[in-house]
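in:
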């Protein structure tokens, strides 16, 4: 694949991502937390942005839209369900909307929970998904608008993606998520190994993103409702997966 991926740190813990196809010279950006770092990342590389994709309406994902559009003219796509909350959208998308960029198809997955209109963008041929504030490395978004049942359903759409799929999320929350996860699955060897890698990366101020679907299935407590150890530690041995998810989400809220 000829795609180059650049993670652009914004504010204290947000990420935007740039994808550049050197065959077509096209560049796309996912989310617009703030304009300045994104515009500098583009100009350092002499890339011109043609497309901007927005996952959801929170300020820390859309504050840069105006300025980025003004300077680059990028065509901006975002969820139809949040059109009133996201100024500057040129095209509205929902699950099933055909979307192509630089010759590849992008699947749109509706993933309500964090917000009601949240969407994820799946670049199938490149095995990359942008999960915004739905799925984090070792975590999931807070339920500001949706119910636990909605979020569990949304996460259940991401879990069957090919294991090697790279996951880019909207925030660097991984270390604190890992510490939380360890409380509930202290004997999970994959998690123990992963937390060492995360500590090492963060001590050098390196990102822990991207992760993969495989890593998340093995270690992310919000995807591990089927884990006997997790269930035991929540006193929910015989509960449904959705009940286990709801409880682990509540514990994280009350941390
Ligand atoms: Zn958010
Ligand atoms: Fe956010």
């Amino acid at each position: 694949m000829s795609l180059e991926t650049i993670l652009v740190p914004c504010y204290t813990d947000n990420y935007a991502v740039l994808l550049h196809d050197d065959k077509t010279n096209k560049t796309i950006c996912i989310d617009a937390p703030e304009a300045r770092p994104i515009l500098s990342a583009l100009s350092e590389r002499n890339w011109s942005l043609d497309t901007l994709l927005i996952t959801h309406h929170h300020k820390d994902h859309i504050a840069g839209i105006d300025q980025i559009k003004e300077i680059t003219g990028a065509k901006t796509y975002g969820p139809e369900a949040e059109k009133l909350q996201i100024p500057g959208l040129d095209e509205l998308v929902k699950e099933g909307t055909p979307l192509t960029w630089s010759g590849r198809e992008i699947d749109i997955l509706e993933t309500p929970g964090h917000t009601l209109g949240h969407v994820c963008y799946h670049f199938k041929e490149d095995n990359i998904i942008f999960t915004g504030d739905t799925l984090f490395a070792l975590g999931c978004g807070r339920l500001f608008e949706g119910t636990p049942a909605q979020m569990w359903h949304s996460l259940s759409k991401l879990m069957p993606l090919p294991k090697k799929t790279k996951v880019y999320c909207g925030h660097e929350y991984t270390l604190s998520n890992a510490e939380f996860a360890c409380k509930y699955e202290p004997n999970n060897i994959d998690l123990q190994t992963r937390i060492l890698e995360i500590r090492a990366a963060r001590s050098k101020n390196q990102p822990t993103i991207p992760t993969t679907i495989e890593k998340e299935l093995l270690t992310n407590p919000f995807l591990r409702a089927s884990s006997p150890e997790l269930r035991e530690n929540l006193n929910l041995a015989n509960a449904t997966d959705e009940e286990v998810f709801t409880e682990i989400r509540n514990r994280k809220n009350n941390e």
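note: The mean pLDDT is 98.
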